[in-house]
Amino acid sequence: MGATSSAPGTIDRVTPALLLAHGAGGTVRANFSPLIPMLSRKRKVHAVDFPGSGTTPRATGPLRLDDLADRLVVAADGEERFAVVGFSMGCAVAVNLALRYPERVSALVLTAGFARIDDETRVRMREWRRLLAGDRADLARFLVPAAVGEPTRRRMTAEQLDGFLELVALTVPPGSAEQVDLVERIDLTGELPALDVPTLVIGTKHDRMITPATTRRLADLVPGARWAELDSGHAPAVEAPAAWARLIEDFLDDVG
């Protein structure tokens, strides 16, 4: 699914557009839906589901960051300049895009991202891929505790948790295996020091999928990157959408 959103009459002509890059096993809707109306008040927002997510056909071979970045540029619908918000795997797509098209990227916001996953996360990725071949309910019982922060889970009733587990089981994108495989192969540690664009890196405080320490290492490799943290797990669109949107808006307004 491609997505473009704006609020007519409220967008400054010189305000760069905004591109959204979703995470592995996600979609634009799942990772960003609550944010899009908020972010669309000041700028046009463009997004696209990567292969195997939403209605985008599944890839016939391994995914490549270059291809995902180019798909996002096409989704920009002719915009000359844009900021990019990446989430999880989408952070690597955003960085790749900025390195390949530096004249077009005005700013980056990288949330729950990584330069390269650590050994603990690699074990989780391999378990994720193994469970994709089996029962979706088992996969959901693995994914939800890893993604949703403990404070949020404690606030959920048993019925809410059961409903969320069922939703996750029913909405696993068919291309999740290829996307998780890409996560395991990503290594941007050599490229990040050359990044020359205003960047905000946001850690997710209760994240067990991509730990805040892993995201902090990403921030340390980006020259001049700012750091912020959300009181959420690896599901900020569910756990802290307003706070996430506010961090993005404040940063983009500040860097102009």
- Number of DSSP strand runs: 7
Fraction of residues in β-strands: 5-15%
**What proportion of the residues is helical, as a percent range?**
40-55%
Q: Point out poorly predicted stretches.
A: 6-13
Topology:
Elements: E1 2-5, E2 17-21, H1 28-32, H2 35-39, E3 45-48, H3 65-75, E4 82-87, H4 89-100, E5 105-111, H5 119-132, H6 136-147, H7 150-155, H8 158-170, H9 176-185, E6 199-204, H10 212-221, E7 226-230, H11 236-239, H12 241-255
Parallel strand pairs: 2-3, 2-4, 4-5, 5-6, 6-7
Antiparallel strand pairs: 1-3
Helix pairs in contact: 3-4, 5-9, 6-8
Short structural summary:
This protein has helices at residues 28-32, 35-39, 65-75, 89-100, 119-132, 136-147, 150-155, 158-170, 176-185, 212-221, 236-239, 241-255; strands at residues 2-5, 17-21, 45-48, 82-87, 105-111, 199-204, 226-230. With 256 residues, it is an alpha/beta fold. The longest helix has 15 residues, at 241-255.
Protein architecture, described:
The chain has 256 residues and is of the alpha/beta class. Helices cover 46% and strands 14% of the residues. It is built from twelve helices and seven strands. Strands 1-3-2-4-5-6-7 form a seven-stranded mixed β-sheet, sandwiched between helices. α6 crosses α8. The relative contact order is 0.17. The model is unreliable at 6-13 (pLDDT under 50).
Structural features:
7-stranded mixed β-sheet; 7 strands; globular; alpha/beta; about 260 residues; about 45% helix
